[in-house]
Each structure stands twice: as structure tokens, then as C-alpha cells.
Task: structure prediction
Amino acid sequence: MSLPLLIVVDDEPDLAGFVCTVAEQVGFDIEQFNSAALFKDQYTSADVIVLDLMMPGVDGVEVIRFLAGSGCDAQLILVSGFDPAVLHSAQKLAIEQGLNVAGSLSKPFRYDDLHQLLSGLSITPKSPSRRTSIESPPVDELREALVNSELLLYYQPKVGLNGCFIAAFEALVRWQHPAHGLLSPDLFIPTAEQHGLINDLTWVVLEQAIMQCCSWRDQGLTVQIAVNMSASTLKELDLPEKIGGLLERHGLEPSQIILEVTETALMQELITSLDILTRLRMKGFHLSIDDFGTGYSSLVQLHRVPFSEIKVDRSFVMAMDHDPEAAAIVETVILLGHKLNMKIVAEGVETDSCRETLARLGCDQAQGYLFARPMPADEAFQWFSQHKTANPPP
Result:
């Protein structure tokens, strides 16, 4: 079996040679390029590429652009002796362009740091790709699913970090497809948006969530349920009356429902959205700004809309353990939200160290695989029964 191939692209021959030596010790075949232009001319494929950012002629950012355009699937390690903020930005750029960034190193780096990074890489042998996933079902099948009640909700708990373990459940839609089994929303939400079905889908989710809230109430569980709102639904001026009437028929209070709104949805028809959301808040509904930090004008929206909750986007939360800038952003959002009398929910919590950091920073709630994955309603009730008197894990 051939060894995985590692390519070093660095205009400093001594440093490139050092990387090659360590890579050979770890178990790689190696190639070395001291010219980025030559690398671009001769590159075909690799398992790992170690790329210096600061090079004369063609620099590392240009190489990143080239690799992205080439459909490169190698694991990329960026190195630089420049400002750490530049290295961080280049790493984000590579990720945004679809490259597989395995890590970064600031020059000068030690043997142990490089050896540990290379040893920890998981190399998958290159083989012809096989299609293991299905394509999005056609729109006609989605229409039938809406009529035939094939859409169902899974629930993921939002866990308190301030002594109250259970805080709420977020309702997440799934499609029980008759031929393909359980489908995740990324396989049908875009279809619903493109073909004008997203409003109908949102109301199916709302009605199911409200009915589930009633069912749990009858079983002794009173808990808030969060529902994601589509941009289309936020254009209905009578939305407050329609949701209010639905709750009244089931004997629920508006305070039991959290309506989660993304900035993308909010900005499509801003004046109408502000009208609707302000009236919903006046009626007692909780409003949450979802994926906070990923929009273009998040602070403007906090100033305009009467949100009661901020959900910090998972991209920042999941990077907290190894990215000081991401950790600083999360800390700042927590401080800002509390200044504005809002609760803060961190998405994407998967490690104990992340949970501990969030608790130390005063984050109110957390959501993620560390606590529980999304689950059917009956499993969610069992999960609650097991954790209702528990404190957050130590």
C-alpha cells in the first residue's frame, strides 16, 4: 500500500525541508515546492498540503483560491510568520471556499507541535467516490407529504447553565418519506422555499408543536417550545391573530412559545416583519434571533426588534476551545445580550470544556450533542423525566 502524500509549499528551503523530515517520520511520502507558481503548474492531487501564506510572486491566498477552483480535497495546513489575525482570516477564507483545513501553525513552530498535528490527521485512502446519499425528492412528493402528514417533529432540549437544567425544547422538522425513510431538513427545506411551500410547512410545524405542548402538559410537563419561522410567514400581517387563536383553542399561553427568526428572514420585508414581530412580542410571545453573528447587521436588528433571546451561532461556539477570537465573540455577545435584558443560548455545544466556559461567562442556556441529539416526542418526554431534577453535568 502506498503512503499518503504530503506536499510542502514554502519559499524557505530550510523550513520546508524541516517539515518534510517530520512528515517522513510520521509516515508520509513528501514533495517540496519552494515556488508557489511551480506548485500551481504541477499540482494534481495530494492527501495533505502544508502551505506558507507569505511567499514572493504568488502568495498563499492565491494558492488557496487556486485549490478551491481545482476542487482540492486534500487536508490543508496553513503556516505563517505574519500577524496571527492574518493567519486566522486566511483559515476562515479557505473554509468558506470549501477547503478542508486541518490546522494552522505560526512560525517559528516547534518539532512537537508539527509532529502532533501531522500524527493526528485522519487520512482516508483515495478511491472512486460512491453515491451513498439520496437527492432531494421532487416537489410533487413534498406536496403529497404536506397533505399526507409525513412531516414530523424531533425535539432537542435547551439546557440551563445557571442551575435550572431543563429550559425548553426546539422543534426540528423531519420528513418520514415512504421510500427513503427519515429525511433531514436540508433535503427538503430548499425545495419548499423554491416552490412556495415553506409557509405551509411552517404552519404544519407550528400546529404540531402546539399540539405536542398540549400533550406534554397533560402528562405533567410544562415546557417552552421553540419554532423556527420562515421569511414567508413573517409577511402575514394577521400572523399574531392566527397564532394567538391557535393557542387559545388549545388552552396555551403565548409565553410557552419561542419564535426563532434569522436575520435573513427578517430582512426580506423589514417593515412588515417589524410590524408583525412587535405585535407578537406585545401579545406575550418570546422572540429569538437565531444564528446570531452570521448576518450583516446583527446589532441593528437588536436595536430594532424586541427580541427576548439571542442564539449564538454554532460556528463561534464550536470553535471556542481552539480559537481565541471566536471565544471573544461569544463572551461579547453574552455581555451585550445581558445588557439588553435578553437570555443567551449557545448552539452547537459538544464538549465539557465548552460547557464549562459558557457557564463561567454567564451564558443562560446551551443546546447541542453534549446534552442530547434531536429526538421524537416520546423520547424527549422520557429524557425530561430522567433529567428534570438533575443539575448540569459536573
Residues 163 and 391 are 6 Å apart (CA to CA). The chain has two domains: 5-119, 139-387.
